[in-house]
Design goal:
Elements: H1 3-17, H2 21-43, H3 46-62, H4 73-98, H5 119-137, H6 141-152, H7 157-164, H8 168-186
Helix pairs in contact: 1-2, 2-3, 2-4, 3-4, 4-7, 5-8, 6-8, 7-8
Length: about 190
């Protein structure tokens, strides 16, 4: 963000901290699509992502007084989204573990890989989406966060480190582990 945009955003935050609901609505409008995309990347399910989206903005609103202007509002908000996503996945994993019927084989909401005019290609694309979805589910929550922020949202390593509040080396390590796990999981399907 440019300096002027940051100042405009800080002005909105100050107004929202003073109780101006319209200012907070403007902050939501500025970041709503990005928040939803990150939540979707973290969970792979639109319904789950929408829950995280709502919880993240509720949390941001309730904690707005703690925003100290040490980083951009976007960075602060994305940290909330990532943490909410990690907590959501933890709770969902626990519910699935404790559930009698834990046969949730729902597929990951990945972008279309091909047009569906050819039934054989559609079947291959569906199979590929399913395999990638299963491989992504095997990543730890933090690995999934780093992978999503880097490869789906195009953040730089240093930006991810700020969002996750950790060292750049830690981000690189988690990203390396995530890619390595995905390569191993998809090894038989990757053509060399």
């Amino acid at each position: 963000m440019r300096e002027q945009e940051i100042e405009n955003e800080f002005s909105l935050v100050r107004q929202a901290q003073a109780g101006d609901e319209k200012a907070f609505e403007q902050l939501v409008k500025r970041h709503d699509r990005h928040v939803l995309n990150i939540a979707l990347g973290m969970t792979g399910q639109l319904v789950d992502a929408q829950d995280i989206y709502q919880e993240s903005f509720l949390r941001a609103f309730s904690k707005l007084q703690t925003f100290s202007f040490q980083s951009s509002f976007k960075t602060w908000l994305l940290r909330i989204v990532v943490n909410q996503s990690i907590n959501y996945r933890r709770k969902k994993k626990l519910r699935t573990f404790l559930s009698i019927d834990s046969s949730d084989e729902s597929t990951l909401a990945l972008p279309e890989l091909t047009d569906h005019s050819d039934p054989t290609r559609k079947l291959t694309a569906d199979e590929c989406r399913s395999l990638i979805g299963k491989a992504l589910k095997k990543l730890s929550a933090k690995e999934r966060a780093v992978f999503t922020l880097k490869h789906e949202q195009d953040y730089k390593i240093r930006e991810i480190a700020v969002i996750l509040d950790c060292a750049e080396g830690t981000v690189k390590n988690m990203l390396f582990r995530a890619v390595n796990k995905l390569q191993k999981a998809l090894r038989n399907y990757i053509q060399e």
